[in-house]
From TrEMBL:
GO terms for molecular function: symporter activity. InterPro entries: MFS_2, MFS_dom, MFS_trans_sf. Residues 1-440 form the Major facilitator superfamily (MFS) profile domain. It comes from Yoonia litorea. It comes from the Bacteria. Keywords: Membrane, Transmembrane, Transmembrane helix. This is Na+/melibiose symporter. The chain crosses the membrane at residues 12-37, 43-65, 77-95, 107-129, 150-168, 174-193, 222-251, 271-290, 297-315, 321-340, 377-396, 416-436. GO terms for biological process: carbohydrate transport. It holds the Pfam family MFS_2.
């Protein structure tokens, strides 16, 4: 049964709520620890990484449990319904550090809140990814669903990367997180309601945890794609983690360009994210069409090559006092990032079908868990790499937002968000072209 436009769009809406937290953990936690709590950047990077590694441990468990869940609402919905509440409470809590505590207590508080939020995120994200393999087996329909998903995800990026920092400047991070929590919860709950009549697999699997894991790992094309998507995510996560620092130290508004008023009203970081989101939203239909014309792998390679070219251009343009020109480049960055956002998420459910066809086991939750494991590993490693890189260059922490940095530290930051991610993305391109493409062609034949 073909899905209606409302079901495709409604399913995609959930990612708006999910991505708010994804952006917060990638973009704001490291900066919050270093710029507002005075935690040294190397320690802050490892704190962020430690929590995200803990989160990865829960992935296989949640995937396994959701595959084996039996309720009248299906296998996935109860996890998502409760998980978004847990995620929202944890996100507000991690920014609600009481005043007057020492650095160790501050770090412990953030770790606790961050841990709760990431568990809630896993409870939502893994069952949500599994739904993509359950409610349709049509590859083109999955591309359309993912297009809707990433369009809404772009709005989530705007909320997490532009609205929350803007609100935080006037009301504090905790109140800003609380203000957007109803949007997160509402997006996931409305998504569940919109797909309540879509096809789904009701019968829980009877295969053991070890057996399920073995089936996933034996899907070689899927495992290669997991690794390559993790490589891509490492590049993007380094960029995202470094953007708050770039907005403070590499993009200094001169006050006399077209968007200077907007930069003053929104903060430079919020303006850059708004520009990025505009580009991402504009590109979604294009990447769906290109995937249908070139195939998903070909379209993804094109997108990543364009991304690499854009990052080199951005390296050449920074530091800059022309906020309008940099915002324009961020629109282009959002358009190229649209390929990374959308296409891999439409590719991996096709590989679920291979295992279901060969084994008869509907283990979409396990596939979603392993898929997110690779993404989360990259997101966990990126802040630590960035923190160590900046610390080695003599980066200075502060509790005042900004502090004078050395020329070497600024140059290192510039490379860490442009040339280094570009090199990582090129590795992913080579892997897609010469390893994944022929392997997937045999598996999906």
């Amino acid at each position: 049964m073909a899905l209606s436009v409302g079901q495709k769009a409604g399913w995609g809406l959930a990612d708006m709520g999910i991505v708010v937290f994804v952006v917060v953990k990638q973009l704001l936690v490291l900066a919050y620890l270093t710029a507002f709590l005075g935690v040294p950047v190397g320690i802050a990077g490892f704190v962020t990484t430690a929590v995200l590694i803990f989160d990865m441990i829960t992935d296989p468990l949640i995937g396994y449990l959701s595959d084996k869940t039996r309720t009248r609402f299906g296998r996935r919905a109860p996890w998502m319904f409760i998980g978004v509440l847990v995620m929202s409470v944890g996100m507000v809590g991690l920014f609600s550090v009481p005043e007057g505590m020492g650095m160790s207590a501050n770090v412990a508080w953030v770790i606790a809140g961050f841990g709760v939020a990431t568990i809630g995120f896993t409870m939502v994200a893994i069952p949500y990814g599994a739904q993509a393999g359950e409610i349709t087996q049509d590859p083109k329909e999955r591309s359309a669903m993912t297009g809707w998903r990433m369009a809404f995800a772009s709005v989530g990026i705007l909320i997490g990367g532009a609205v929350i920092p803007g609100l935080a400047g006037s009301m504090g991070y905790a109140m800003a997180a609380l203000a957007v929590s109803p949007l997160m919860i509402g997006a996931v709950w409305f998504s569940l309601w919109s797909v309540r009549k879509a096809p789904r697999i009701e019968t829980p699997v009877t295969v053991s945890f070890k057996g399920i894991l073995g089936l996933v790992l034996s899907n070689r094309a899927f495992m290669v794609l997991v690794v390559l998507y993790g490589v891509m995510t490492l590049a993007i996560a380094m960029i995202t983690a470094g953007l708050p620092f770039a907005a403070l130290y590499l993009i200094v508004d001169s006050g006399d360009t077209m968007l200077s008023g907007a930069a003053s009203a929104l903060t430079t970081l919020s303006l850059m994210f708004a520009a990025f989101v505009v580009g991402s939203i504009l590109s979604q239909a294009f990447w769906v069409l290109l995937s249908n014309r070139l195939g998903k792998v070909g379209a993804l390679i094109v997108g990543l090559l364009l991304y690499i070219a854009l990052l080199y251009a951005l390296y050449s343009a920074l530091p800059s006092v022309n906020v309008t020109a940099i915002a324009g480049m961020f629109v282009l960055a959002g358009m190229t990032n649209g390929a990374y956002q959308q296409i891999p998420w439409a590719m991996y459910p096709d590989l679920m079908d291979v295992t279901r066809r060969e084994s008869g086991a509907a283990i979409e939750g396990a596939f979603s868990a392993v898929w997110l494991f690779g993404q989360k590993l990259a997101n966990a490693v990126a802040p630590a790499i960035l923190g160590l890189t900046l610390a080695a260059a003599g980066w200075l922490e502060t509790t005042d937002g900004t502090i004078a940095q050395s020329d070497g530290a600024i140059a290192t930051l510039q490379m860490a968000i442009t040339l280094i991610p570009a090199a990582i993305l090129f590795v992913a391109v080579l892997g897609l072209a010469f390893i994944y493409r022929p392997m997937a062609a045999r598996a999906l034949a």
